[in-house]
Structure of DegV family protein:
Amino acid sequence: MVIIVADTTSTIPTEEAKQLGIPYIPQIIVIGNETYRDDYEMDSKTFLQRLKTSPVLPKTAAPPPALYYPIYQEYAKPGNTVIVLAPSAEVSGTYRSAEVAAQDFPHADIRIVDTRTIGAGLGTLVRLAHQWAQSGMDADTIVQKVKEWAARERVYFVVDTLEYLHKGGRIGGAQMLVGSLLQIKPILQFKNGRTEPVESQRTKRRAIERLKELVYADCPHNDEAYLAIMHGDALEEAQRLAEEFKRHLGLSRVAICDLPPAILVHAGPGVLAVSYFTQG
């Protein structure tokens, strides 16, 4: 039996993970001297309110290895394989925590995969891997397919400000843009496990128009694109974008995801992101 383990950076709602039977790990939000799990203790709406009003910038902490122990104890039994699909190790310590916890189970078949991504695309990989496991696919094939799918993902996003990425140390190759952003709105991408700049526009409206052009350039015109819109307190914009993509690309569905606190702390309010998979 193969068990897929995920965490909240996948944007899968906690209740959905529970219904699917996917063991689910929270990220930790730190605001001053207070800490919160972002599965049951701090939702996106509450977090954004705190982010806008807190005198100190909230921080994130990877889930401690101790949160993985009970999952490994329950599922890492003879005959079972546990596959942890972790967000990019370049922006999150989740991979390392899962790895440290696995060291206490030397005889168990536990595989931690650095998916090199984060957000809705990671959520798609988790759901697909879970389906493959439920259908009886072996662990080696699942890991290989996850890596192949991950390599085909594209993530573009527009932020209102680079302030949060900069202060949180998650700005990656977009560092070069800091200091020149008074009059521009950058289009960024999540590539090779980190944030990279694409180009800049003078207004957010133009940035979103350009983002759409980038998506139209190579997004498949079918539902296997698993196109998803992610946002932080920008639901109406996300809904408009989803309808345009459905109409232009002939898609029957476009998921709209609230970004979890562990991502919002770096992207900030107003962020809009698009994730999809190119043709295999």
Observations:
- Residues 153-277 form a domain with the Hypothetical Protein Tm841; Chain: A;domain 3 fold (CATH 3.30.1180.10).
- The longest strand covers residues 194-201.
